[in-house]
Amino acid sequence: MERVSFSAVIKQFKAVFLDSYGVLKNHQGLINGVQDTLQSIRNQGLAVRVLTNDASRSQSQQVDVFKQLGLNTLVDDEVITSGMMARQFLELKVQAGKIAYLGTESSAECILHPGIERVPVSELDLDDLEHVKAFVFVDDEGFDWNRDINKTVNFLRRKNLPVIVANPDKYYPTSNNDVAVAIGGLSRLVESVLNQKFMRFGKPDTQIFMYAFDNLNQYGTFEKQDILMVGDTLNTDILGGNKFGIKTLLVLSGNTRPDNVYMKIRSSGIIPDYITDSILT
Fold first, then answer.
1. Can you identify the CATH homologous superfamily of domain 2-53+203-276?
2. Is pLDDT above 90 for 43?
3. Residue 134 CB partners (closer than 8 Å, separation 6+)
4. Main-chain dihedrals φ then ψ at residue 151, nearest 5 degrees
5. What local confidence, expressed as pLDDT, does residue 47 receive?
6. Cis peptide before 114 (omega within 30 of 0)
7. Which of 61, 70, 81, 68 is nearest to 38 (CA)?
8. From edge to edge, which strands make up the β-sheet containing 47-52?
9. What percent of the chain has pLDDT over 90?
């Protein structure tokens, strides 16, 4: 667990997987200096992929958001989302009927394929569930946290079907010190109430890393030892990279703070290969 500068350690690799929130941006917007750092990475010939658990936007929408924040160099194929992984599963497994969801309609459009009717949980008829074939936790907005969470619990008590969590993150920062509950955390509450286990897509699951790895190899030849995963969260970015067998770098510009980083590593047992303050170092 070596403390390093990002610019020094990146020279060992041919490609870098970057988390989005906490690495490239935060609650205030794009982290100042990230534009220059990404340009430096590209100038050294490294391939870049952004791996995000934000399932609320498509690849092109993610790129558009970065452009609005001032980062203009990303292209659609360089962004890989947990929502893409959830969509792959649903396209293979649910080809008829309805899919119910908790979240906004725009986010559901990114995950649910057009041939399937999608129904927000608020519009479900709990006495007529025959044609509902799956349920998706999409994002933490677009519903009433009291009424619709209770309705979700009662729906899932009545109907045995695949339940997908499109974003496994438990929370996200809203300031330097505060966080808000994300859909991954909400889904864990419902799991606990029902004593069930749901399917989660995104980091730390290996699928998103394999997708990014295969995507890279469409443009060149890369081995796992050629890739560095950079993230701000031990339980998603670092655990996922470790499980996939690539080197990991924990940055202290997001969820993990300098004052508690070593305590979190000891308590979690999740050990990054490197630690740095940010990718600006």
1. HAD superfamily/HAD-like (3.40.50.1000)
2. yes
3. 90, 93, 94, 99, 100, 161, 162, 163, 164
4. -65, -40
5. 98
6. no
7. 70
8. 2-3, 274-276, 247-251, 227-231, 15-18, 47-52, 79-81
9. 91
